[in-house]
Amino acid sequence: MRLVNIIIQKIFIMRSISLLLVSMLFCAITMDAQVNVGVKIGANFSNASVSGINESFIPNIDHLTGFTAGIVAEIPVYDKFTFKPELNYIEKGFTASEGVSQWFNLNFPADLKADVSYKSIEVPLLMNYNIINGQNKVYVYAGPTFGYYIDAYYRAKASIVVDINLYKGNIDLSKDAFNRLEIGGALGAGASTTVNNSILFVDGRYAMGFSDLISESIIDIRVKHRGFQLSAGYKYSF
Fold first, then answer.
1. Cys-Cys with 227: which of 46, 145, 166, 185 at CB 3.0–4.6 Å?
2. How many Cα neighbours within 13 Å face the side chain of 190?
3. Bridge pairing between strands 60-62 and 106-132
């Protein structure tokens, strides 16, 4: 039954994305609007918030750097407002560490670490406002994001002056404690320059998950993702 539910979820996500993109293209054509379509690539500096459990049991949580890339579009709405849907691949995660103060009764500072990485397909639906309009633009944007986690793994390390990899394992996202569907939000700003029909842009955004990635009622622990993304890209104006 769990396998059937996973297959149904994947079909639902892919059909929703396809319907969304087709609908946006249809709206743009019928409105006779000038649509910008392109690609972007960048880095995601992600972290996690852990709540519910007693703070004494929570290890040190630090950021994890991942890769992100996607397809972007921009559709004029009114005056300086545009609609910016995206379809992105994002690597999210965090590093959990615990200090070890003594080994064999000797003071020997070290850290035991675990890099936890999640791969996600995400659809942000952003409303953009051009603060400075024209050939060179400065803009801000915000909107909801809808994601689906497709894979995850952890890598255990011992940190003694340098990091030493111990082992790597996969995380089973089909377990009940994991919620593969994520609803979140994004807030960001950027700048672009236009040469003929080509547009080069850079932007940064803060993104946060509103839904729990991990929710375990037995031990009362909840984990949400958050992070900062930097990206650059190219769009073509049709």
1. 46
2. 23
3. unpaired
Q: How far is CA 76 from the centre of its chain?
A: 25
Cα 159 → chain centroid: 27
Q: How far is it, in rounded angstroms, from Cα 32 to Cα 35?
A: 9
Residue at token pair 């560490």 = 97
Q: Strand, coil or helix: what is 210?
A: coil
- The alpha helices in 112-223, defined as continuous H runs, are none
Angstrom distances, CA of residue 93 to CA of 124, 134, 139:
18, 38, 28
Residue ranges per structural domain of the chain:
35-237
Angle at 74 (CA atoms; ends 71, 76), nearest 5 degrees:
165
Taking alpha carbons only, the member of 183, 238, 175 closest to residue 207 is 183
Confidence of residue 217 (pLDDT cuts 50, 70, 90): low
Q: Is this structure's pTM higher than 0.90?
A: no
Give start and end residues of each alpha helix (H) in the chain: 2-30
pLDDT band with cut points at 50, 70 and 90 for residue 102: very low
Whole-number Cα distances in Å, 215 to 101, 145, 184: 31, 20, 16
CATH of 35-237, one of 2.60.40, 2.40.160, 1.10.287, 3.10.20: 2.40.160
Q: Which of 49, 53, 48 is nearest to 221 (CA)?
A: 53
